[in-house]
Design brief:
Layout lengths: L4 E4 L1 H14 L5 E9 L2 E10 L15 H13 L5 E8 L9 H6 L6 E6 L5 E7 L7 E8 L1
Parallel strand pairs: 1-3, 1-7, 4-5
Antiparallel strand pairs: 2-3, 2-4, 5-6, 6-7
Length: about 140
């Protein structure tokens, strides 16, 4: 895999990290929209979603399917300039690395996963799944605009 990075605005990152803190001890979640060009994934927006997991929400998350469909319809109207390029969620009391559950539930290759851990100083890390094996994650740098 070639070197990759995720570009995100300071405001969008603040939005995500604020949600991680606000919804703790439950996991918060969002879709990431934007575009990929060469080695860069550019996040243009975060589409926040309620965590609709029917399991323990302090350890699991699920994007609301209605939020996902609405985002896809909106992006279709954008004439293909942006698409859903990833997902973000928080790991309250955990680590900024993909859990066993994250890896097992990953089905899309070349997809961004951002994970935040709430606390006095919120920590966020980004990963991109391998094209041919979406259960394998490669840690990448985050560039903040």
């Amino acid at each position: 895999m070639s070197p990759l990075f995720v570009r995100i605005t300071k405001d969008t990152l603040r939005q995500l990290e604020g949600a991680a803190t606000m919804y703790a001890p439950e996991e918060a979640c969002a879709l990431l929209t934007g575009y990929a060009y060469e080695e860069c994934f550019t996040v243009t927006a975060a589409v926040m979603s309620p965590n609709v997991s029917d399991r323990d929400r302090t350890k699991f998350f699920e994007i609301d399917p209605a939020v996902h469909i609405k985002a896809q319809k909106k992006l279709r109207n954008d004439q293909g300039k942006t698409e859903i390029i990833g997902v973000w969620h928080s790991h309250p009391g955990g680590k900024t690395e993909p859990s066993v559950t994250d890896k097992a539930s990953s089905t899309q290759g070349n997809f961004v996963w951002m994970i935040s851990v709430p606390g006095p100083s919120v920590q966020t890390q980004a990963y991109v799944t391998e094209r041919k094996d979406p259960t394998k994650f490669c840690q990448v740098d985050i560039l903040i605009d």
